[in-house]
Structure formats: C-alpha cells, structure tokens
C-alpha cells in the first residue's frame, strides 16, 4: 500500500469520526428535512473547535519534538549548553 493511500485512509477515518461526533452532538430534530439554524451553528462551532484543537496539538507536538532533538544533540555533544 502506498504512503499516499494510507494517509488518505487516515484522513477519511478522521473526517468520518468528526462528522459522526458533530452530528450526534448537534442534530436533534428529525421531524423536518431542513437543517435548523441552531443545528447549523452548532455544527460549524464543532468543526472550528476540532480544527483549533488539532492545530494546537500539532504545535505542541512540534515544540516537544524540537526540545527532544535539542536534548539529544546536547547529550551527544553536538550543541553547547543553552
């Protein structure tokens, strides 16, 4: 299996889980075909919150990774002390 296909499958899994979670949290009325404004607003907020959370986790992971790399380089004597 190619890397691109694996990444795409992971993306689809994440997208499906996000869709399911936001749908379960936001859609409560099945008596009409129309999406109520409250449901639409809730869904948009759910998506925004997820995207912000994902971005924040990614930033923290990068910071942690940089710190770990610096610590390893310092341990190996490749960098002077801070």
Sequence-ordered SSE layout with sheet pairings:
Blueprint: H1 3-26, H2 37-75
Helix pairs in contact: 1-2
Organism: Oncorhynchus tshawytscha
Membrane topology: Peripheral membrane protein
Domain Tim10-like: 7-63
Question: Would you report the number of β strands?
Answer: 0
Helix/strand-derived class?
mainly alpha
The 3D shape can be described as elongated
Measured on Cα atoms, how large is the radius of gyration? 21 Å
Average pLDDT confidence is 90
Distance between the termini: 44 Å
Uncertain runs with pLDDT below 50, 5 residues or more? none
**DSSP helix count?**
2
Order of helices and strands: HH
Main sheet: strands, sense, barrel: none
Percentage of residues in strands: under 5%
Helix content: over 70%
Characterise the protein shown here.
By secondary structure, this protein is mainly α. It is built from 2 helices and no strands. Helix 1 (3-26) packs across helix 2. The N and C termini lie far apart (44 Å). The mean pLDDT is 90.
Key phrases:
82 residues, mainly alpha, 77% helix, chaperone, mitochondrion inner membrane, translocation, disulfide bond
């Amino acid at each position: 299996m190619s890397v691109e296909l694996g990444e795409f499958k992971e993306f689809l899994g994440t997208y499906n889980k996000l869709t399911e979670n936001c749908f379960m949290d936001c859609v409560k009325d099945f008596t009409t075909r129309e999406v109520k404004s409250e449901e639409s607003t809730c869904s948009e907020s759910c998506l925004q919150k997820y995207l912000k959370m994902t971005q924040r986790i990614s930033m923290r992971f990068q910071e942690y990774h940089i710190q770990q790399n610096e610590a390893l380089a310092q341990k190996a004597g490749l960098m002077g002390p801070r």
